[in-house]
Amino acid sequence: MENKPYISVVAPLYNEGDNVRQLYQEIKAACEKISKPYEIIFTDDGSTDNTAANCQVLTPLKLIKFRKNFGQTAGFDAGIKEAKGDIVITIDGDLQNDPADIPLLLEKINEGYDVVAGWRWQRKDPLSKKIPSRIANLLRKFLIQDNIHDSGCGLKAYRRQCFEDVDLFGEMHRFIPAVLAMDGYKVTEVKVNHRPRIHGTTKYNWKRGIKGISDMISIWFWRKYANRPQHLFGGTGIFLSLAGIAILIWMAVEKIFYSASLSEKIWPLVGIFFIMVGIQLFISGLMFDILIKNYYKNRNRMNYSIKEIIES
User: Fold this and answer.
1) Neighbour order of strands in the sheet with 187-191
2) N vs C: which end of the chain shows fewer Cβ within 10 Å?
3) Domain ranges of the chain
4) Measured between alpha carbons, how far is residue 251 from residues 255, 278, 289 in Å?
5) Whole-structure pTM value
6) Residue pLDDT, tens place only, 269-307
7) Are 147 and 187 in contact (CB under 8 A)?
8) What is the C-alpha to C-alpha distance for residues 214 and 174, in angstroms, rounded to an integer?
9) Using an 8 Å Cβ cutoff, are 73 and 90 in contact?
10) What's the fold here for domain 7-225?
11) What is d(CA 6, CA 89) in angstroms, rounded to the nearest whole number?
């Protein structure tokens, strides 16, 4: 292989000792069919079985070993940062993604897209995984609106420049296309093969589901209000404050003109509560506005992405 690879294939592994040899051979075979220089990067995410030992006999291979289990997103992030290829391919380490589909992703990339996501249109998972995934997809479509059918598919292709300003945390690897679409990158998807798991056990559980929903809400906030947090917090605060003032005026009218007793009514407390919460939200909006401006300033970028500058 040449020093500068064209393709970098990144796969995070956690207790996939029975899968790594076959995964490596299938990735290698798919890359060799493309007839361009490539590199394969595996991230051992603190495995407690023979995953690392089985990886060390494979060549050529770049192996990143974590000190402990940090999660799949961290595995992807470390591999992507180490990748040198013009095109970065991510793939799960459980053999359910089919490396033979890598050329399909590259065909779409060559059509001018920046991100190509795999769509497991015929999933070979049990209902215990399919049902939560369907619910999460519905919630994702409502909040994020990334026009992707299957954000959970690990098989994706990206142009190198997509990751110049992207750091992955939590379960964010599922939503990379959504994050990049927010910055104006061209995102599409292709139908890919999906295979049943043969060796090992699934790492998906309810905890990962909760983390995914939390990250989804975070992305919704960035998509809608990253450039204007004061519109969300300040606007809500003003609304609540006005509602509280209206309630107190209503109570004052009842007391002055109708001699109503307010000692047993909860509405005066509700009005004061709304005003207090509204003021706090408004101040929070100002603070978030300052923090986000500092965030962009410290990263030497703005809240927009320039594709190219043409002089004529």
Assistant:
1) 62-65, 38-44, 7-13, 87-90, 156-159, 115-119, 187-191
2) C
3) 7-225, 229-298
4) 6, 19, 35
5) 0.70
6) 999 999 999 999 888 888 877 787 776 667 666 554 545
7) yes
8) 12
9) no
10) Spore Coat Polysaccharide Biosynthesis Protein SpsA; Chain A (3.90.550)
11) 11
